[in-house]
Write a structure and sequence with these properties.
Layout lengths: L2 H8 L5 H13 L8 H14 L9 E8 L14 H11 L4 H8 L2 E9 L10 E2 L17 H20 L4 E7 L3 H13 L3 H4 L8 H18 L6 H8 L2 H16 L3 E3 L2 H13 L7 E3 L7 H9 L16 H18 L18
Parallel strand pairs: 1-2, 1-4, 2-3, 4-5, 5-6
Helix pairs in contact: 1-11, 2-3, 3-14, 6-10, 6-11, 7-9, 7-10, 7-12, 11-12, 12-13
Bound molecules: alpha-ribazole-5'-phosphate and nicotinic acid (NIO).
The site of alpha-ribazole-5'-phosphate has 17 residues, from helix 4, strand 4 and helix 7.
GO molecular function, one term: nicotinate-nucleotide-dimethylbenzimidazole phosphoribosyltransferase activity
Pfam families: DBI_PRT
Family: Belongs to the CobT family.
Length: 355
Protein backbone atom coordinates (compact mmCIF):
# COMPACT_ATOMS: atom_id res chain seq x y z
CA UNK A 1 0.00 0.00 0.00
CA UNK A 2 1.27 3.50 -0.75
CA UNK A 3 2.20 5.80 2.12
CA UNK A 4 -0.60 8.14 1.11
CA UNK A 5 -3.24 5.40 1.20
CA UNK A 6 -1.92 4.08 4.51
CA UNK A 7 -2.18 7.53 6.06
CA UNK A 8 -5.60 8.30 4.54
CA UNK A 9 -6.95 5.03 5.89
CA UNK A 10 -5.30 5.41 9.30
CA UNK A 11 -6.81 8.74 10.40
CA UNK A 12 -9.18 8.20 13.32
CA UNK A 13 -11.83 10.43 14.91
CA UNK A 14 -10.98 12.48 18.01
CA UNK A 15 -11.05 10.76 21.41
CA UNK A 16 -14.50 11.57 22.75
CA UNK A 17 -13.82 10.38 26.29
CA UNK A 18 -10.80 12.67 26.69
CA UNK A 19 -12.92 15.56 25.39
CA UNK A 20 -15.72 14.89 27.89
CA UNK A 21 -13.24 14.68 30.80
CA UNK A 22 -11.61 17.93 29.69
CA UNK A 23 -14.97 19.69 29.48
CA UNK A 24 -15.76 18.46 33.01
CA UNK A 25 -12.45 19.78 34.32
CA UNK A 26 -13.01 23.14 32.61
CA UNK A 27 -16.45 23.36 34.24
CA UNK A 28 -14.91 22.64 37.64
CA UNK A 29 -12.49 25.60 37.44
CA UNK A 30 -13.15 28.76 39.46
CA UNK A 31 -14.89 30.75 36.71
CA UNK A 32 -18.37 30.97 35.21
CA UNK A 33 -19.04 27.99 32.95
CA UNK A 34 -17.84 28.52 29.37
CA UNK A 35 -16.47 31.98 30.19
CA UNK A 36 -13.03 31.36 28.66
CA UNK A 37 -14.60 30.78 25.24
CA UNK A 38 -12.12 29.57 22.68
CA UNK A 39 -9.44 28.90 25.30
CA UNK A 40 -11.82 26.20 26.48
CA UNK A 41 -12.77 24.78 23.07
CA UNK A 42 -9.08 24.61 22.11
CA UNK A 43 -8.28 22.62 25.25
CA UNK A 44 -11.14 20.24 24.46
CA UNK A 45 -10.04 19.86 20.83
CA UNK A 46 -6.41 19.17 21.75
CA UNK A 47 -7.48 16.61 24.37
CA UNK A 48 -9.48 14.87 21.63
CA UNK A 49 -6.43 14.89 19.38
CA UNK A 50 -3.96 13.43 21.89
CA UNK A 51 -6.36 11.38 24.02
CA UNK A 52 -5.02 13.07 27.19
CA UNK A 53 -6.75 15.72 29.31
CA UNK A 54 -3.60 17.65 30.17
CA UNK A 55 -1.33 18.41 27.23
CA UNK A 56 1.94 20.14 26.60
CA UNK A 57 2.51 22.34 23.56
CA UNK A 58 6.08 23.14 24.56
CA UNK A 59 7.75 21.61 21.48
CA UNK A 60 6.50 23.57 18.53
CA UNK A 61 7.55 23.56 14.93
CA UNK A 62 6.74 25.73 11.93
CA UNK A 63 7.10 23.88 8.63
CA UNK A 64 7.60 26.11 5.58
CA UNK A 65 7.22 24.49 2.16
CA UNK A 66 9.03 26.49 -0.53
CA UNK A 67 8.46 26.00 -4.26
CA UNK A 68 8.16 27.90 -7.51
CA UNK A 69 5.11 28.17 -9.70
CA UNK A 70 5.39 28.26 -13.51
CA UNK A 71 2.32 30.49 -13.77
CA UNK A 72 4.38 33.54 -12.75
CA UNK A 73 5.50 33.86 -16.40
CA UNK A 74 1.95 35.15 -17.06
CA UNK A 75 2.58 38.24 -14.90
CA UNK A 76 0.23 37.24 -12.04
CA UNK A 77 2.59 38.38 -9.27
CA UNK A 78 4.17 41.72 -8.45
CA UNK A 79 7.40 40.00 -7.42
CA UNK A 80 9.95 38.25 -9.63
CA UNK A 81 10.30 34.48 -9.30
CA UNK A 82 13.79 34.73 -7.76
CA UNK A 83 12.21 36.11 -4.59
CA UNK A 84 11.13 32.56 -3.69
CA UNK A 85 14.75 31.38 -3.40
CA UNK A 86 16.00 34.61 -1.84
CA UNK A 87 13.26 34.76 0.79
CA UNK A 88 13.68 31.05 1.58
CA UNK A 89 17.34 31.69 2.41
CA UNK A 90 16.36 34.79 4.39
CA UNK A 91 14.01 32.61 6.44
CA UNK A 92 16.81 30.27 7.44
CA UNK A 93 19.01 33.23 8.28
CA UNK A 94 16.42 34.48 10.77
CA UNK A 95 15.55 37.65 8.85
CA UNK A 96 11.94 37.22 7.72
CA UNK A 97 8.61 37.76 9.46
CA UNK A 98 8.15 34.02 10.02
CA UNK A 99 11.67 33.72 11.46
CA UNK A 100 11.05 36.53 13.94
CA UNK A 101 7.56 35.40 14.95
CA UNK A 102 8.62 31.74 15.32
CA UNK A 103 11.49 32.72 17.58
CA UNK A 104 9.24 34.97 19.61
CA UNK A 105 6.78 32.10 20.11
CA UNK A 106 9.64 29.71 21.04
CA UNK A 107 8.97 27.61 17.96
CA UNK A 108 11.48 25.84 15.77
CA UNK A 109 11.35 26.60 12.05
CA UNK A 110 11.98 23.96 9.41
CA UNK A 111 12.27 25.10 5.81
CA UNK A 112 11.77 22.58 3.01
CA UNK A 113 12.83 23.05 -0.62
CA UNK A 114 10.14 21.00 -2.32
CA UNK A 115 10.41 22.64 -5.75
CA UNK A 116 12.33 25.91 -5.88
CA UNK A 117 13.59 26.49 -9.43
CA UNK A 118 17.12 27.31 -8.26
CA UNK A 119 19.66 25.04 -6.65
CA UNK A 120 20.05 26.46 -3.17
CA UNK A 121 22.02 25.15 -0.24
CA UNK A 122 22.02 26.06 3.44
CA UNK A 123 22.96 24.11 6.53
CA UNK A 124 19.40 24.38 7.81
CA UNK A 125 17.65 23.52 4.53
CA UNK A 126 15.65 20.31 4.22
CA UNK A 127 16.20 19.46 0.53
CA UNK A 128 13.28 17.45 -0.84
CA UNK A 129 13.05 19.01 -4.31
CA UNK A 130 10.66 17.13 -6.60
CA UNK A 131 11.27 19.32 -9.66
CA UNK A 132 12.57 22.79 -10.50
CA UNK A 133 9.22 24.59 -10.18
CA UNK A 134 5.90 23.56 -11.70
CA UNK A 135 4.55 24.06 -15.21
CA UNK A 136 2.51 27.12 -16.16
CA UNK A 137 -1.11 26.20 -15.30
CA UNK A 138 -2.41 28.65 -17.91
CA UNK A 139 -0.87 26.39 -20.57
CA UNK A 140 -1.12 22.88 -19.10
CA UNK A 141 -0.90 20.92 -15.83
CA UNK A 142 1.33 22.13 -13.01
CA UNK A 143 2.72 18.61 -12.57
CA UNK A 144 1.73 15.02 -13.14
CA UNK A 145 -0.27 12.97 -10.67
CA UNK A 146 2.76 11.01 -9.44
CA UNK A 147 4.59 14.25 -8.61
CA UNK A 148 1.57 15.57 -6.70
CA UNK A 149 1.46 12.36 -4.63
CA UNK A 150 5.23 12.52 -4.12
CA UNK A 151 4.80 16.11 -2.86
CA UNK A 152 2.09 15.05 -0.41
CA UNK A 153 4.30 12.21 0.81
CA UNK A 154 7.16 14.64 1.47
CA UNK A 155 4.83 16.49 3.86
CA UNK A 156 3.77 13.24 5.54
CA UNK A 157 7.41 12.24 5.90
CA UNK A 158 8.39 15.57 7.49
CA UNK A 159 5.59 15.21 10.04
CA UNK A 160 6.65 11.62 10.74
CA UNK A 161 10.09 12.99 11.64
CA UNK A 162 8.54 15.71 13.82
CA UNK A 163 6.50 13.03 15.59
CA UNK A 164 9.66 10.98 16.25
CA UNK A 165 11.40 14.10 17.58
CA UNK A 166 8.55 14.69 20.04
CA UNK A 167 6.99 17.83 18.58
CA UNK A 168 3.52 18.47 19.98
CA UNK A 169 2.32 21.47 17.93
CA UNK A 170 2.82 22.16 14.22
CA UNK A 171 2.29 25.28 12.09
CA UNK A 172 2.05 25.43 8.30
CA UNK A 173 3.80 28.02 6.14
CA UNK A 174 4.94 28.47 2.56
CA UNK A 175 7.09 30.53 0.27
CA UNK A 176 6.34 30.54 -3.44
CA UNK A 177 5.86 33.53 -5.68
CA UNK A 178 2.60 33.02 -7.61
CA UNK A 179 1.02 30.71 -5.05
CA UNK A 180 -2.03 32.88 -4.42
CA UNK A 181 -2.89 32.17 -8.08
CA UNK A 182 -2.59 28.39 -7.69
CA UNK A 183 -4.54 28.61 -4.41
CA UNK A 184 -7.40 30.47 -6.09
CA UNK A 185 -7.41 28.00 -8.98
CA UNK A 186 -7.69 25.07 -6.54
CA UNK A 187 -10.50 26.75 -4.64
CA UNK A 188 -12.45 27.44 -7.84
CA UNK A 189 -11.89 23.89 -9.07
CA UNK A 190 -13.08 22.36 -5.78
CA UNK A 191 -16.02 24.62 -5.03
CA UNK A 192 -17.10 26.33 -8.25
CA UNK A 193 -16.47 29.75 -6.64
CA UNK A 194 -16.38 32.64 -9.11
CA UNK A 195 -13.16 34.39 -10.14
CA UNK A 196 -14.48 37.56 -8.52
CA UNK A 197 -14.93 35.83 -5.17
CA UNK A 198 -11.83 33.65 -5.21
CA UNK A 199 -9.06 35.84 -6.60
CA UNK A 200 -7.26 38.50 -4.57
CA UNK A 201 -4.32 40.85 -4.90
CA UNK A 202 -1.78 38.41 -3.43
CA UNK A 203 1.44 40.21 -2.55
CA UNK A 204 0.06 43.34 -4.32
CA UNK A 205 -0.92 44.12 -7.92
CA UNK A 206 -1.90 47.05 -10.14
CA UNK A 207 -5.60 47.09 -11.21
CA UNK A 208 -4.57 45.96 -14.74
CA UNK A 209 -2.43 43.10 -13.42
CA UNK A 210 -5.30 42.05 -11.14
CA UNK A 211 -7.63 41.75 -14.15
CA UNK A 212 -4.94 39.74 -15.93
CA UNK A 213 -4.58 37.44 -12.91
CA UNK A 214 -8.30 36.61 -13.00
CA UNK A 215 -8.16 35.95 -16.73
CA UNK A 216 -5.12 33.66 -16.32
CA UNK A 217 -6.75 31.65 -13.51
CA UNK A 218 -9.93 31.30 -15.59
CA UNK A 219 -7.82 30.00 -18.47
CA UNK A 220 -6.03 27.53 -16.17
CA UNK A 221 -9.38 26.00 -15.16
CA UNK A 222 -10.64 25.90 -18.76
CA UNK A 223 -7.52 24.29 -20.18
CA UNK A 224 -6.85 21.75 -17.42
CA UNK A 225 -10.43 20.78 -16.57
CA UNK A 226 -9.57 19.62 -13.02
CA UNK A 227 -11.91 16.95 -11.66
CA UNK A 228 -13.65 18.39 -8.60
CA UNK A 229 -14.32 14.88 -7.26
CA UNK A 230 -10.60 14.03 -7.31
CA UNK A 231 -8.58 16.42 -5.06
CA UNK A 232 -5.26 14.98 -6.27
CA UNK A 233 -6.23 15.70 -9.87
CA UNK A 234 -7.02 19.29 -8.85
CA UNK A 235 -3.69 19.61 -7.02
CA UNK A 236 -1.70 18.16 -9.93
CA UNK A 237 -3.40 20.21 -12.64
CA UNK A 238 -3.74 23.68 -11.08
CA UNK A 239 -1.86 23.49 -7.76
CA UNK A 240 1.77 23.66 -6.72
CA UNK A 241 4.42 21.67 -4.87
CA UNK A 242 4.36 23.99 -1.85
CA UNK A 243 0.65 23.24 -1.49
CA UNK A 244 1.22 19.50 -2.07
CA UNK A 245 3.76 19.42 0.78
CA UNK A 246 1.34 21.22 3.08
CA UNK A 247 -1.49 18.79 2.21
CA UNK A 248 0.89 16.07 3.40
CA UNK A 249 1.54 17.97 6.63
CA UNK A 250 -2.20 18.14 7.40
CA UNK A 251 -2.65 14.45 6.61
CA UNK A 252 0.45 13.46 8.59
CA UNK A 253 -0.54 15.52 11.65
CA UNK A 254 -3.99 13.91 11.62
CA UNK A 255 -2.45 10.45 11.32
CA UNK A 256 0.08 11.05 14.12
CA UNK A 257 -2.50 12.94 16.21
CA UNK A 258 -0.63 16.25 16.52
CA UNK A 259 -2.57 19.57 16.50
CA UNK A 260 -1.77 21.55 13.34
CA UNK A 261 -2.37 25.26 12.79
CA UNK A 262 -3.57 26.84 9.52
CA UNK A 263 -2.08 30.17 8.36
CA UNK A 264 -3.46 32.21 5.45
CA UNK A 265 -4.95 31.35 2.05
CA UNK A 266 -2.27 29.00 0.74
CA UNK A 267 -2.08 26.98 3.93
CA UNK A 268 -5.91 27.03 4.11
CA UNK A 269 -6.28 25.71 0.56
CA UNK A 270 -3.91 22.86 1.44
CA UNK A 271 -6.08 22.21 4.51
CA UNK A 272 -9.15 22.14 2.25
CA UNK A 273 -7.54 19.57 -0.06
CA UNK A 274 -6.67 17.41 2.95
CA UNK A 275 -10.25 17.77 4.19
CA UNK A 276 -11.60 16.69 0.80
CA UNK A 277 -9.28 13.66 0.89
CA UNK A 278 -10.44 12.73 4.40
CA UNK A 279 -12.95 14.94 6.27
CA UNK A 280 -11.66 13.72 9.67
CA UNK A 281 -8.53 15.86 9.14
CA UNK A 282 -10.56 18.96 9.96
CA UNK A 283 -10.77 17.88 13.61
CA UNK A 284 -6.98 18.16 13.87
CA UNK A 285 -6.77 21.65 12.37
CA UNK A 286 -6.68 24.93 14.27
CA UNK A 287 -7.24 28.11 12.23
CA UNK A 288 -5.14 31.10 13.20
CA UNK A 289 -5.80 34.52 11.65
CA UNK A 290 -8.31 35.65 9.08
CA UNK A 291 -6.27 36.59 6.01
CA UNK A 292 -7.38 39.67 4.10
CA UNK A 293 -7.27 37.66 0.86
CA UNK A 294 -10.97 37.28 -0.08
CA UNK A 295 -10.71 33.55 -0.76
CA UNK A 296 -9.77 32.85 2.85
CA UNK A 297 -13.33 33.25 4.13
CA UNK A 298 -14.68 30.99 1.37
CA UNK A 299 -12.27 28.25 2.39
CA UNK A 300 -13.21 28.53 6.06
CA UNK A 301 -16.90 28.40 5.12
CA UNK A 302 -16.33 25.29 3.00
CA UNK A 303 -14.79 23.53 6.03
CA UNK A 304 -17.09 25.13 8.59
CA UNK A 305 -14.11 26.53 10.49
CA UNK A 306 -13.75 29.92 12.14
CA UNK A 307 -10.55 31.97 12.35
CA UNK A 308 -9.38 32.92 15.84
CA UNK A 309 -7.47 36.15 15.19
CA UNK A 310 -8.32 39.29 13.20
CA UNK A 311 -5.09 41.15 12.57
CA UNK A 312 -5.50 42.48 9.00
CA UNK A 313 -2.54 40.34 7.92
CA UNK A 314 -1.98 39.14 4.33
CA UNK A 315 1.58 37.89 4.21
CA UNK A 316 1.64 34.11 4.28
CA UNK A 317 4.95 32.35 5.20
CA UNK A 318 3.00 30.80 8.09
CA UNK A 319 2.96 34.05 10.09
CA UNK A 320 -0.47 33.51 11.66
CA UNK A 321 0.65 30.24 13.26
CA UNK A 322 3.21 31.37 15.86
CA UNK A 323 0.73 34.02 17.00
CA UNK A 324 -1.86 31.29 17.47
CA UNK A 325 0.71 29.09 19.24
CA UNK A 326 0.71 31.64 22.06
CA UNK A 327 -3.08 31.46 22.44
CA UNK A 328 -2.85 27.66 22.45
CA UNK A 329 -0.17 27.82 25.17
CA UNK A 330 -2.55 30.02 27.19
CA UNK A 331 -5.30 27.43 26.78
CA UNK A 332 -3.03 24.63 28.03
CA UNK A 333 -1.95 26.72 31.03
CA UNK A 334 -5.55 27.48 32.05
CA UNK A 335 -6.50 23.83 32.04
CA UNK A 336 -3.42 22.79 33.98
CA UNK A 337 -2.90 25.61 36.47
CA UNK A 338 -6.27 27.14 37.41
CA UNK A 339 -7.77 26.03 40.70
CA UNK A 340 -11.07 24.13 40.93
CA UNK A 341 -14.08 25.11 43.04
CA UNK A 342 -13.49 21.97 45.08
CA UNK A 343 -9.88 22.91 45.83
CA UNK A 344 -11.13 26.32 46.99
CA UNK A 345 -14.03 24.77 48.99
CA UNK A 346 -16.45 26.96 47.06
CA UNK A 347 -19.89 25.99 45.80
CA UNK A 348 -20.55 26.47 42.09
CA UNK A 349 -24.23 25.44 42.10
CA UNK A 350 -25.21 29.06 41.54
CA UNK A 351 -23.52 29.15 38.11
CA UNK A 352 -25.86 29.01 35.13
CA UNK A 353 -24.59 27.23 32.03
CA UNK A 354 -24.93 29.78 29.22
CA UNK A 355 -22.76 28.04 26.61
C1 LIG B 1 9.10 39.96 -0.53
C2 LIG B 1 8.00 38.97 -0.34
C3 LIG B 1 7.96 38.20 0.80
C4 LIG B 1 6.91 37.29 0.99
N1 LIG B 1 6.65 36.44 1.98
C5 LIG B 1 5.54 35.79 1.71
N2 LIG B 1 5.04 36.19 0.55
C6 LIG B 1 3.77 35.70 0.01
O1 LIG B 1 3.58 36.15 -1.32
C7 LIG B 1 3.64 35.11 -2.25
C8 LIG B 1 2.30 34.93 -2.89
O2 LIG B 1 1.84 36.11 -3.49
P1 LIG B 1 1.72 36.21 -5.07
O3 LIG B 1 0.78 35.13 -5.48
O4 LIG B 1 1.13 37.57 -5.30
O5 LIG B 1 3.09 36.04 -5.65
C9 LIG B 1 4.03 33.86 -1.47
O6 LIG B 1 5.41 33.64 -1.55
C10 LIG B 1 3.56 34.19 -0.09
O7 LIG B 1 4.22 33.44 0.88
C11 LIG B 1 5.88 37.14 0.04
C12 LIG B 1 5.92 37.91 -1.12
C13 LIG B 1 6.97 38.82 -1.33
C14 LIG B 1 6.98 39.64 -2.58
O1 LIG C 1 -2.84 35.32 3.46
C1 LIG C 1 -1.97 34.79 2.80
O2 LIG C 1 -1.66 33.61 3.02
C2 LIG C 1 -1.26 35.54 1.72
C3 LIG C 1 -1.73 36.73 1.23
C4 LIG C 1 -1.05 37.39 0.25
C5 LIG C 1 0.13 36.85 -0.24
N1 LIG C 1 0.58 35.71 0.22
C6 LIG C 1 -0.09 35.05 1.20
Amino acid sequence: MSILNKVLGGIKPLDNEAQVKTAERLDSLIKPIGSLGKLESLAIQIAGITGEVLNKTDKKCMVVMAADNGVVEEGVSSAPQDITAIQTINMMNGLTAISVLSKQAKSDLKVVDIGICHDISHEKLISRKIRMGTGNIAKGPAMDRAEAIQGIEVGIDIVQDLHKEGYNLIGTGEMGIGNTSTSSAILIALTGATLEAAVGMGAGLSPEAFEKKKEVIGRAIEINKPDKADPIDVLAKVGGLDIAGLVGCFLGASYYRIPIVIDGVISAVAALLAYKLNPLTREYMIPSHSSLEPSYRLIMKEMNLEPNLYLNMRLGEGTGCPLMFQIIDASMAILKDMATFQEMSMNNDFLIDIR
